[in-house]
């Protein structure tokens, strides 16, 4: 186990941080800038996964398994959220026949 | 014994609650009988207590409960039954009982008769609290309570706005007096640290005569008495109070409530005796009131208003008696006045009932043969009030006139003239209503009929009392029967002991003169009135100075100009400037501001999901920023 960890620690931690930040930003931009509801869901997943990766990286670099345990929690939440979100999307599609989020504009003053 | 005293308060209260709460369901006849039964039980209890207090010469103290108790101040709710209270108990319950029975007949056709008897019982309850209270605060509770009952009963027929105005006038004028009374109570408390009447009397008797604090206190208490007992300047409510039903006028405004002021001063006799300035003020105010009341009464044309101004005049006479230091004389005249004034009011009610609601004496006449019983009762009342022996009024007035002459010849002559005014207006009333042949204005709605027995019997009892009640105290000229003085002697012993030693006693010749001369003048006046009023064709309209008297010395107009109109302007100003502009403006501004903010904030709800997502992301960033970085 220690050899795998020491192999991991050859790559400096900053690379992981930068990489996950970039992934998170891409996810944020995808949520804000896309019209397709499925793409927005994917971007949300991307953000969650970037957090997962960062947690795993910190767990490896500090020899603390708590980070990886937390990844499990996040994965559970992500799975549940996807289930509900897709179910909602199916119902919305049935009434509006589109997955363009700009078509859901009736709840305004 | 203590239980009996407590029961005295319980029965009228129960009567009020029962009749009042079940007004709509209760049978109309039942309410009158129930109310009369409660007062009858009260009367029996009062008679029992009266006998006990008279025979054992003890003062009964009945503490009920500790009412106000903090630090070292304790004001208990307690009853005191001494001879003065017992006397008032008998008057209130006795005359009250007779008037309840009378009202059963008088208010028979009225639609709200249940409410009437509930209010009557409430009045008796509060009057008993006033009479039985052992400290000034309890007396004040009863004081306020009878003012309230008076308001409710004057405005009994509330659908007519004139009655409501009269009720408001009575209550507000009472209130002005109550302010003085309250100030007196505050001063008493700060001076003596207690409000119990007996304690204050004990402590005050150690003070020198003419003490400034005592003078101010007694002046304040007298202001209270002025409001309640209709002295100048707070008397104009009493004639207006005739808007209420006649039994109310008889009970409240003749026999009981208006005597509360005199009772207060008699109770505080020690305080008043030590303030000669206040006694002089009382004397002057009483004299002026008696004079003004009598003069106005001569020129009134409403049967109840004549009796009302007569009450004002007699109350002034009573205050004169108090001012002269003749406390037991005042109580004696109070008792006899209760009898014959209630009789007169009830008889007037009988006349009004017979004529189906007519109250203007110019439209009456020749009733002597049509309603003979009422006529007989009215004659008894008139003779009693004029002070003709052997009826009760003579004896009680004799005591007061003797006290006046002892004060000084001028005062005595003045007092005699005032009591002669009574003769003039009362006999005018008697002759015009009963003797004068009916004029062209006599148009009764139904045939003139005698009152039912339930109304006549109480009046008969009062007539008998007006005849014999005087014999308890004969003038010193004739015998030593000084029943009344002896009865109340223990009460006023302390006060009389504090007065400077001996007043000049009158010679026998003067006493005979005081006795004979007024009688001759009365006889002359009766003959003159007969010629003037019975044989004259019409009651001539008043001109010149008579018009001033007929218009009641313009008191109401002056008060209207001085107080009512300025207050009206002030309240209009406050309504416009403060209420409408400032307060309404503020409240409306708050509402408008909310609407305005809403209009602007509404624009956030665009319905654009992408916009919402942007706001969400930026909010999260902001929260994180402010929590972690800052």
Description:
The complex is a heterodimer of chains A (109) and B (630). Chain A is mostly helical and 109 residues long. Chain A has one domain: Orthogonal Bundle (Helix Hairpins), CATH 1.10.287. Helix content of chain A is 78%, strand content 0%. Chain A has four helices and no strands. In chain A, α2 packs antiparallel against α3 and α3 runs antiparallel to α4. The longest helix of chain A is centred in the C-terminal third of the chain and has 31 residues. The radius of gyration of chain A is 18 Å and the shape is elongated. The model of chain A has no long low-confidence stretch (mean pLDDT 91). Chain B is mainly α and 630 residues long. Among the domains of chain B are: 212 residues, no CATH class; 72 residues. Chain B contains 24 helices and two strands. Chain B has a two-stranded antiparallel ribbon. The termini of chain B are far apart. In chain B, 48% of the residues are buried. The chains are: A mainly alpha (109), B mainly alpha (630).
List the helices and strands and how they pair.
The complex is a heterodimer of chains A (109) and B (630).
Chain A: H1 2-8, H2 13-33, H3 37-62, H4 66-96
Chain B: H1 2-21, H2 28-56, E1 60-70, E2 73-81, H3 83-106, H4 113-132, H5 136-154, H6 161-192, H7 197-204, H8 212-228, H9 237-240, H10 246-255, H11 260-267, H12 269-273, H13 276-298, H14 303-323, H15 327-354, H16 372-386, H17 392-407, H18 409-435, H19 453-468, H20 483-498, H21 508-534, H22 545-550, H23 555-601, H24 609-629
Antiparallel strand pairs in B: 1-2
């Amino acid at each position: 186990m220690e050899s795998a960890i020491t192999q991991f620690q050859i790559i400096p931690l900053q690379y992981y941080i930068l990489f996950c930040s970039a992934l998170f930003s891409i996810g944020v931009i995808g949520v804000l800038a896309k019209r397709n509801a499925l793409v927005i869901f994917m971007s949300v997943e991307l953000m969650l996964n970037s957090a997962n990766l960062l947690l795993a990286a910190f767990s490896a670099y500090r020899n603390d398994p708590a980070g990886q345990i937390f990844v499990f929690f996040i994965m559970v939440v992500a799975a549940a959220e996807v289930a509900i979100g897709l179910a909602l999307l199916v119902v919305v599609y049935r009434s509006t026949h589109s997955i363009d989020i700009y078509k859901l504009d009736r709840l305004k003053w | 014994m203590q239980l009996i005293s407590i029961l005295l308060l319980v029965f009228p209260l129960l009567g009020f609650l029962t009749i009042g709460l079940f007004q709509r369901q209760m049978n109309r006849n039942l309410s009158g009988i129930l109310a009369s039964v409660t007062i009858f039980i009260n009367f029996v209890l009062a008679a029992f207590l009266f006998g006990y207090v008279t025979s054992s010469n003890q003062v009964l103290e009945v503490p009920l409960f500790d009412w106000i108790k903090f630090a070292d101040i304790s004001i208990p709710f307690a009853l005191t039954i001494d001879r003065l209270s017992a006397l008032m108990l008998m008057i209130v319950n006795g005359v009250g009982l007779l008037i309840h029975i009378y009202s059963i007949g008088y208010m028979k056709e009225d639609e709200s008769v249940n409410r009437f008897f509930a209010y009557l019982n409430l009045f008796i309850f509060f009057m008993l609290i006033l009479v039985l209270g052992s400290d000034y605060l309890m007396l004040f509770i009863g004081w306020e309570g009878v003012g309230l009952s008076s308001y409710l009963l004057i405005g009994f027929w509330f659908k007519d706005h004139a009655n409501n105005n009269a009720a408001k006038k009575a209550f507000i004028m009472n209130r002005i007096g109550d302010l003085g009374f309250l100030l007196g109570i505050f001063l008493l408390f700060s001076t003596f640290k207690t409000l119990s009447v007996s304690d204050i009397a004990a402590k005050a008797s150690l003070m020198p005569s003419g003490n400034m604090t005592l003078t101010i206190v007694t002046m304040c208490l007298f202001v209270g008495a002025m409001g309640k007992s209709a002295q100048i300047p707070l008397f104009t409510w009493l004639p207006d109070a005739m808007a209420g039903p006649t039994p109310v006028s008889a009970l409240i405004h003749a026999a009981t409530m208006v005597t509360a002021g005199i009772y207060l001063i008699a109770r505080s006799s020690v305080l008043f005796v030590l303030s000669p300035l206040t006694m002089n003020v009382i004397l002057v105010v009483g004299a002026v009131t008696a004079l003004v009341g009598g003069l106005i009464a001569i020129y009134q044309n409403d049967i109840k208003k004549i009796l009302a101004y007569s009450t004002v005049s007699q109350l002034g006479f009573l205050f004169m008696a108090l001012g002269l230091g003749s406390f037991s004389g005042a109580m004696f005249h109070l008792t006899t006045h209760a009898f014959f004034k209630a009789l007169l009011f009830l008889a007037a009610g009988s006349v009004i009932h017979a004529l189906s609601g007519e109250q203007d004496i110019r439209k009456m006449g020749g009733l002597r043969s049509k309603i003979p019983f009422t006529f007989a009762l009215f004659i008894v009342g008139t003779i009693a009030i004029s002070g003709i022996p052997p009826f009760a009024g003579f004896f009680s007035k004799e005591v007061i006139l003797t006290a006046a002459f002892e004060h000084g010849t001028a005062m005595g002559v003045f007092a005699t003239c005032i009591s002669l005014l009574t003769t003039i207006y009362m006999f005018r009333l008697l002759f015009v209503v009963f003797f004068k042949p009916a004029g062209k204005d006599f148009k009764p709605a139904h045939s003139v009929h005698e009152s039912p027995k339930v109304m006549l019997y109480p009046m008969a009892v009062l007539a008998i009392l007006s005849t014999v009640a005087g014999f308890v105290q004969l003038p010193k000229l004739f015998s030593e029967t000084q029943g009344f003085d002896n009865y109340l002697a223990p009460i006023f012993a302390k006060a009389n002991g504090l007065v400077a030693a001996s007043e000049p006693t009158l010679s026998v010749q003067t006493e005979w003169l005081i006795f004979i001369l007024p009688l001759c003048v009365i006889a002359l006046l009766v003959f003159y009135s007969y010629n003037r009023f019975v044989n004259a064709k019409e009651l001539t309209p008043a001109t010149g100075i008579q018009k001033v008297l007929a218009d009641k010395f313009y008191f109401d107009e002056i008060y209207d100009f001085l107080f009512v109109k300025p207050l009206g302007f002030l309240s209009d100003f406050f309504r416009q400037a403060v209420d409408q502009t400032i307060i309404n403006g503020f409240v409306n501004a708050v509402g408008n501001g909310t609407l305005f903010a809403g209009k602007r904030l509404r624009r956030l709800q665009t319905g654009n999901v992408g916009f919402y997502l942007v706001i969400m992301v930026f909010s999260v960033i902001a929260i994180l920023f402010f929590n972690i970085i800052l």
